[in-house]
Structures are given as C-alpha cells and as structure tokens.
Model the fold of this input.
Amino acid sequence: MSTIDFRGHKLWYTEAGQGPAMLFLHNGGNDHRIWDQQMQHFSRTHRAVVVDHLGYGQSDKPRIEYDLPLYRDEVATLVEMLDLAPVHLVGHCIGGAMALAYALAEPQNVASLTLSNVATEQTLCAGPLGIAYQTFSKDRDQLEAFLAPLEAQGLPEEQMNETIRSQFAPDGPGPSPEFEAHLRELYNRPGQMRSLYTLTANWKTFAAVDQPEKPDHFPPTLLLWSNENQVLPAPAGEAFAQRLQPDRFERLEGCGHLAMVEQPDRFNSLIDKFLASVAATA
Done:
C-alpha cells in the first residue's frame, strides 16, 4: 500500500503482480474493495493497480469541488507517476466516466478500455440519484442541510440498508457479511458522503462523456451493463451503448450495480476474453 501526491492531497493505491498494467477505478461512494476479486484474478497475469479516488476510502477527503475533470486528471496523474502507459483501464460507474474521459484525451496511453455501468449525466438522471443531482446542483443550502445530520450522526439505519440493497440485484444473494460490514463502516467515515454528494451536485460535468467524439486510434472498448441495475438503469445503458458504439457490449443478466462483486467469475471471464482479443489483434 502506497500513496502519491495529487494536487497536494494523499492518493492511496496498491498494486500486485507483473505484466501489462491494469488500473481499476471504483464507483462513487465506495472504495477499492469492490475490486477484490478482480485484483486477485488479474494480478496473476498483469500488473494490477487499484486506487481509492480522492474523497474516498483511505485517500484524503478535502472539502473541494469534486467533478469529472478533477477525476480525469487523477487518472492522468496515476498513469504518469506510476509509469502505467499503455494501460488497460477498467472503470465502474464514475470510474467508467473517468476512464472514458481520459481515453478521449490521451488515447495513445490506453491499451484497452473496459467500462462497467458508466455514470454520465443521462444515465444518472434515469435513476434515483437524478433527483439529488437536480436538487443539489441548484441549491447548495439544501446540500448542506442534507449533509449536516449525516456528518454528525452517520447514515440512519433505514437509509444505510437501502443504500446497500440498491447496489445489488433485488433477487440476488446480496453482499457477503464481511463486505457488507465494510460498506457500513465506509459510508460513515468522515468526509465520505460529503465527497459523493458534492460530486452529485456537479454532475453536469459528466455530460462530457454522454456524446463521446472518439479520436483516431481510440482504444478497443468493452462495455458491460447490468440488467438489474437499480442505480443506473439498463435502458439508459442501452442508449449509452448506441452513442458510444463500443467494440463489444455485454449485458449482465441477474446482476445489480456491483456486478464485479455479485458475479466475479463471469465478470472476470468477459474481461479475459476481451483482453485476449485485443492481444490477438495487436
């Protein structure tokens, strides 16, 4: 486990394995632990790197304006300082938007792009967080009024339960007891929810990846979307796939938002097959 400096703040990361570099980018609200099964699997064949984004997990949580340009620059800093290029980027939710935004800006540094349930302005507005975005982006006083009791007392039990349930398929087994305990502790860490909802208030910046204009030599792209996603609904994913036109689009049956946690073997297998095809083409 190590840290690097990003805009004067501590950015936590860890890595394992040797070979072509893979960088895993987690979703908003959570941390690197969503990638536990992927780190274990891909570190056998790759130099696998996982990070806690600024504002989350073990990284610093400064009171700043979080937005997509900030997180695109976080990816650029990691790629440069850890000497990862050409890197295989794997991004989920806001991590998918981060990976896509970076690849649009620096395609020469990206060997492949795996995007899972990508958070854009349109995909977020199709789900329940769209209301929070519309509210908090217009009225920061309401954002502060919402955050004050969370920071003082933590998430109420009912809200905690709903936040966790919403990330998994309704009829699925849900998280393991150990992972659920981690999420409960994580969501009440000082600054964690403020980072998420400050980002939500700035979600307009994610419109930049809604209509991606891919430059020449754009990296091969795999798009994964969960059919039972309660956060970023599947119809919004279908529409995004039409706009992005990835090389491969895989629909994940029986999965909620955190497909890599719910069905890690299937998730990993799809990426393995994609990376094999990228290597064969190269």
